[in-house]
Design brief:
CATH class: Alpha Beta
Number of helices: 7
Number of domains: 1
Oligomer: single chain
CATH architecture: 4-Layer Sandwich
Distance between the termini: 10 Å
Radius of gyration: 17 Å
Largest sheet: 7 strands, mixed
CATH topology: Metallo-beta-lactamase, Chain A
Length: 264
């Protein structure tokens, strides 16, 4: 028998960083199911990739910001401005934007700068998640859990628990984090940053082996490494990750698509 609900689909919209690249846009992923399209981060290049993925900006129902660095949030203003064309009437669905500690203040400063250019005409809800090990919010047909991770004071990882017992976890930028391991426990897909190769690690970011180690401890079913700086394209990232992780593995590329059928 077919699944009760349509499958959950994950599309990598941006697998890169702040470094300009023709192959890799800045950070973003889209998780879609039923009538929900949930963007995880919205770095520069996201709207173009949405078009290439056949997703309208007006179909996006939720945006989760892992933190406020421009390569993760830089296209938020442009996105909201584009939603006003030609007169705001094309957006029928409400839009919910979720961020970590300080998000409401961050958004207020954007509003102070851009005014009604980013006014969503009463269709916008803002949620600031609590700075606790796990915060959870329920929405029709799914729930979102977040947990602080080690990068910026506002940094959070997201877990989307969708239909048919499917789940996706998105790390955002992070160093080794016990919170992320707890949040990602037994998830179908962990989209995890792996910014730099072994031997080039910097504070606040992971290497392939460290990402693999956390995925192994969390017993994730599929690991997707992403957020690659150019140095990652010069080495065997998969081999480095395999030193600590033996499960299903994907190296993210822009427009990579995964389908999760779920469980009965």
């Amino acid at each position: 028998m077919p699944p009760i609900n349509p499958p959950m689909r994950v599309k990598i919209l941006g697998s890169g960083t702040c470094v300009p690249s023709l192959q890799r846009s800045s950070c973003s992923a889209a998780v879609s199911f039923d009538d929900t399209v949930f963007l995880l981060d919205i770095g520069p290049g996201t709207m173009r990739r949405l078009l290439e993925a056949n997703i309208s900006i007006f179909d996006v129902t939720h945006i989760g910001l892992s933190h406020f660095h421009p390569d993760h949030s830089g296209e938020l203003v442009s996105f909201l401005f584009a939603n006003k064309y030609p007169d705001g009437s094309l957006r029928q669905k409400p839009l919910t934007i979720i961020g970590g500690s300080g998000f409401l203040s961050f958004f207020q400063k954007l509003s102070d700068a851009y005014g009604d250019w980013i006014d969503a005409g009463g269709k916008l809800e803002l949620i600031e998640m609590a700075d606790t090990p796990i915060d959870e919010r329920g929405f029709p047909g799914f729930s979102v859990q977040t947990s602080p991770v080690r990068h910026r004071p506002e940094s959070i990882a997201f877990r989307i628990n969708g239909p048919n017992k499917t789940s996706v976890v998105y790390s955002g930028d992070t160093d080794v984090s016990e919170n992320l391991i707890w949040l990602a426990a037994d998830t179908d897909v962990l989209i995890c940053e792996s910014a730099l190769p072994e031997g080039l690690k910097v504070e606040g970011h992971l290497t392939p082996a460290l990402a693999g180690e956390m995925a192994s401890r969390a017993n994730v079913k599929r690991l997707v490494l992403t957020h690659f700086y150019p140095e990652c394209d010069r080495v065997d990232i998969e081999k480095q990750c395999r030193s600590t992780y033996a499960g299903a593995l994907e190296l993210a590329r822009d427009l990579l698509c995964l389908t999760l059928e779920g469980k009965s």
